[in-house]
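Example A, followed by Example B.
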Amino acid sequence: MKFLLVFDFDHTIVDENSDTWIVKCAPEKKLPDGLRNSYRPGHWTEYMGRVFVYLGDNGVKEDEMKRTMTTIPFTVGMVDLLHFIGENRELFDCIIVSDSNTVFIDWILKAADFHKVFDEVFTNPAAFSSTGYLTVQDFHAHHCAKCPKNLCKRKVLKEFLDKQLERGISYTQILYVGDGGNDLCPVMFLKKDDIAMPRQGYTLEKKISQLAQSLSPVECSVLVWSSAIDIMSYLKLLVKE
């Protein structure tokens, strides 16, 4: 029997938001107010599409974007944790479910040689157009009222588990590591043997504790982490068992 590790990416694997990190490539490292204020809640991917057009219009090329993205810092302890998972692949399946995009995540993981740690990455598809502009699309369509229109992480997780079951693979325990509000929906899908691992002081932890206070707590166990070493310590206990 295996464990499934599900990771968010921004503010979880890396210690920043990859989508806002790319703004370092913009003239004067900032966006015009009109563009910045054009974001509508739940429509982040469309907003990032406009950001990428602005960068392209200002002559920002792929190699410069790649150089910038690969300087993004990993969260404290994350490098050690990913090495540990990589050394114990027979025990863990590992996926990323993120509202970032395929190009950024691919660059960052490959630069640090962590791409082999993950079985699959579920995120918004991105590519460079023939004119050298980065384009991004919604990951999928869904009917979940709680999630941004481009991505419901619960749907991704459920479809992945269904697909694995068809292959004859089920998991002893699912461990979900994340930080954001859009991580709550998949966490509420977890069962009592599973574990939600919200990052300390971030939105997910606050939302989980609000649910507990309103007497509708999540069904799974909750283990708060501030450094990825906290997660690794727990995984080492699992491996010993």
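Example B, a separate protein, is given below in the same form.
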Amino acid sequence: MKNPMVQAASLLEKLMFLVNVRPLSPGSREEPPPAPGYYDTSCFKRGDLLEVPRTLFIHFGIYLGENRVAHMMPDILPAVTGDRRQIQQVVTNKRLILGVITKTASIRVDTVEDFAYGGSILVNHMDRLFEDQVLGSEEAARRAEKLVGATAYSLLWNNCEHFVTYCRYGAPVSFQTDKFCETVKMIIRDQRSVLASMLVGLASIVCLGLAPSTTLPTIFIPFFLWMAG
């Protein structure tokens, strides 16, 4: 029997990629990104960490200056072609999904408009979590530029958040992954609590006999624990 933690992580990792898929209008093709100049880049500095909150998760990038952002995107194309012009085109949903499935990606440089795709942008919002670990802005930008190109990808273990935290703070970390894993562990613990309460209830019935004080808790406690989980 497979480890429930592994099963849950595998299933949810396959579902999590939907956060990066841009929704399409019924019967329409993929919508173009906002026109250049949509964002005021004058407040961005080279080496800044940019965050774009989405429905459930956050997309991250490192600002390189001159309206350019380095960020990691799942993408199948770098694994099948070396044509840089083709790879540099905006990643379509099909390319993104195949990249997630095959665990391939590219660290690419796009305009702020292509990176954010209409979402609001937070600047250096994670600095408060790392205190004195923030590297120099130029060092962060150089790290990002050095990593540009094809790379392995995992929604849980090597995603866009790992990329930017390595560049700006010196260590690849993903708080989204940590939160996800804690949620999976909590679900598993809840399931174990249901089983444990059932076993304790059955033991009390065997030792003390059938009675409302033993039978009702044996039925209702596991039920409410299961419902809460």
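On Example B: Confidence is low (pLDDT under 50) at residues 14-28, 218-229.
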